[in-house]
Amino acid sequence: MSASGDHELPSTWFAWHADLIAPGMRILDVACGTGRHAIAAAARGADVIAVDSDETRVRAGEKLAKKSQLRVEWRVADLQTDPHDGPFDMVMIFNYLDRARMPSFLDWVRPGGYLLAETFLEQQRELGWGPTDDAHLLRPGELWSLVDPFEIILARDVLEVLEGRPMAIASILARRPKD
Question: Alpha-carbon distance 53 to 32, whole Å?
């Protein structure tokens, strides 16, 4: 697995919360890479928009979805722009961090909807792979503050082994308050 999550299996965090995804839900996968989470959500019947700035990865995701006969709307776009399709029932962000854009990502979630996110902690540097720049690494507990005023349903900062590789990650499931 690369730092951008370019393997086909969704993360354990996604798998633990997949039961929240129901047919017809509108889901946005931000920085989707090759779409492992978008494809898994589509397999559960969700209407998924998958966005990434890397056209090569988006095209690879399209091929994977087509091979599985799943419909995902793929978009190559600068991640600094608004998808103009919100609000969404769930916004997913895996292995991507943009602290300055987090308020926008939260705005894309409908009242009562969810944010499902997971990315690397600073400790990842010590593990010999993945991001090393502070801009792409969270401090312990930082993700919790980035989702305020959402209700945190479950969150963790953990060292997890996935496919034989250790990962220092922060994960969160949060719900936007109903207005």
Answer: 9
Half-sphere exposure of 167 (CA within 13 A, CB side): 25
Coil vs helix vs strand at 42: helix
Written as six digits, the tokens of 25 are: 């839900």
pLDDT at 25 exceeding the cut of 70: yes
> Options 3.30.420.40, 2.170.130.10, 3.40.190.10, 3.40.50.150; which CATH number does 12-175 get?
3.40.50.150
Question: What does the block give as tokens for 74?
Answer: 């793929």
Predicted confidence (pLDDT) per residue in 84-132, tens digit: 788 999 999 999 999 999 999 999 999 999 999 999 999 999 999 999 9
For residue 43 the two structure tokens come to 């397999």
Task: Judge contact between 122 and 166, C-beta under 8 A.
Answer: no
Gyration radius (Cα) of the chain, Å: 15
Integer Cα distance of 172 and 97 in angstroms: 13
Q: Which helix (H) or strand (E) segment is 62 a member of?
A: helix 55-67
Virtual torsion, Cα 167, 170, 173, 178, nearest 10 deg: -160
Please state whether the predicted TM-score (pTM) of the whole model is above 0.70. Answer: yes
3-state DSSP call for residue 92? strand
Q: What is the mean pLDDT of residues 163-177?
A: 95
Q: Are 111 and 177 in contact (CB under 8 A)?
A: yes
